[in-house]
Amino acid sequence: MFRLGLIGTGGFAGAHLRAARTLADRTKTVALASRSLERLHKRAEQNAVTRFGTDPGVVIDAPDVDGVIICTPHQSHAELAIRALAAGKHVLVEKPMAISSAEGEAMVAAATRAGRVLMVGQCERYHRQHQALKRLIDAGELGEIRSGRIDALQNAAAFLPKDHWLRDRSAAGGGILWTVAVHRLDLLRWWLGEPAQVMAFSRRIDPAMGEGVDDLVLATIRFASSNRFASGVLIEVFASWGAWRLPYSESLMLLGDRGLVHALPGATAVQFPRLQVARAGLTPPATDFPSQFGGFSDLPDDPTGLPTGDMVTDQLAHFIDCCLTGSEPRSSGRDNLGTLRLLEAIEAAAAGSRLVELPRP
Ligand SMILES: NC(=O)c1ccc[n+]([C@@H]2O[C@H](COP(=O)([O-])OP(=O)(O)OC[C@H]3O[C@@H](n4cnc5c(N)ncnc54)[C@H](OP(=O)(O)O)[C@@H]3O)[C@@H](O)[C@H]2O)c1
């Protein structure tokens, strides 16, 4: 039985604790830590956890905890992860992994020193549709991808109280880029490889956002040329916290020379609109203008290795597998340094109104 501890029992901790309950035949939550005792009591009761406290040491120093989930505000990720790794625990840390790539590097070094797993909660890599798209791209079924766009949209005014820590750069590390767009940017790296150049604009429109917490970001990323994508894929990024009546929506479009995949927000906003694909071989040949439409079909899920279909549960199952076998996680800390560097490059490009080159990995 893999014994879990969790630090930070706020909103998203509920998803992790539910995942652990779903995997009750493999794991058990044995210790919890957070700042508010009231919330701790509730979570402890819901999850039949008897050991909990406001000191993270309750989890980190517990001899019977094998792995620690860190689900706290972003600025505390690095310190808590490094402490847990030094205490011999495996770590699953929420996104963004840290608030700078320098912190991320220190976390990776701590994991290497300790010989423990460091995984980042980029849960969208464990979504069956996103895995299906990766398989499609890797199999060359969209041909050479040349361009695309991602959207990360949310209505912050409706859900972020004025004093929420996400409005404070010292706690959140940045704005919508670090909190929401990080998901799609990480997926792009997984699907397309490493970014090479970035141009960007960003703005702080909502005056209730703190200094340095931009709620609108527009960027263009050129991915490095590769054998598969010789011309270097160009991607447009649109991230806004000012999306009226859109609680949360992440969409995407990728254009290859043999296919096109898209997931656009419909009239009914959902978190992930279903991916639709049209590609050579499957799409009926277009003989006239009207018949060019209707060539799209739903991309079937790829459930391989994602047994439950709930991305947070399948992510936790993968974490436990990696801890038990010593294999590198799909969303390892080492891999995630590239995502942190991309976030930094977009911010630097926006701040200096210039083209930013990323180092070759
Ligand atoms: N993967 C996803 O899709 C997803 C979705 C949502 C959030 N997240 C990520 O999950 C993390 C937590 O977000 P959330 O929405 O759950 O935030 P939240 O609701 O504000 O919860 C944060 C929790 O951390 C506690 N806390 C704050 N500082 C702490 C510290 N230094 N040590 C121990 N506990 C501390 C807070 O305690 P008090 O309440 O007592 O202050 C609270 O329980 C963030 O990294 C966020 O980006 C990921």
Please provide a written account of the structure:
With 361 residues, the protein is α/β, with parallel strands linked by helices. It has 2 domains: 2-124 and 309-331, Rossmann fold (3-Layer(aba) Sandwich), CATH 3.40.50; 127-298 and 340-357, Dihydrodipicolinate Reductase, domain 2 (2-Layer Sandwich). 33% of the residues lie in helices and 24% in strands. It has helices at residues 13-22, 37-46, 57-60, 77-86, 101-114, 128-138, 156-159, 169-172, 176-192, 311-325, 333-352, and strands spanning 2-7, 27-33, 51-53, 67-70, 90-94, 118-121, 145-154, 195-203, 216-223, 234-240, 248-256, 259-263, 276-279, 297-298, 356-357. The structure holds NADP nicotinamide-adenine-dinucleotide phosphate (NAP).
Q: What layout of secondary structure does this protein have?
A:
Elements: E1 2-7, H1 13-22, E2 27-33, H2 37-46, E3 51-53, H3 57-60, E4 67-70, H4 77-86, E5 90-94, H5 101-114, E6 118-121, H6 128-138, E7 145-154, H7 156-159, H8 169-172, H9 176-192, E8 195-203, E9 216-223, E10 234-240, E11 248-256, E12 259-263, E13 276-279, E14 297-298, H10 311-325, H11 333-352, E15 356-357
Parallel strand pairs: 1-2, 1-4, 2-3, 4-5, 5-6, 7-10
Antiparallel strand pairs: 7-11, 8-9, 8-15, 9-10, 11-12, 12-13, 13-14
Helix pairs in contact: 1-10, 4-5, 5-11, 6-9, 9-11
The structure holds NADP nicotinamide-adenine-dinucleotide phosphate.
Residues 7-13, 33-36, 39, 56, 71-74, 76, 94-95, 121, 123, 179 line the site of NADP nicotinamide-adenine-dinucleotide phosphate.
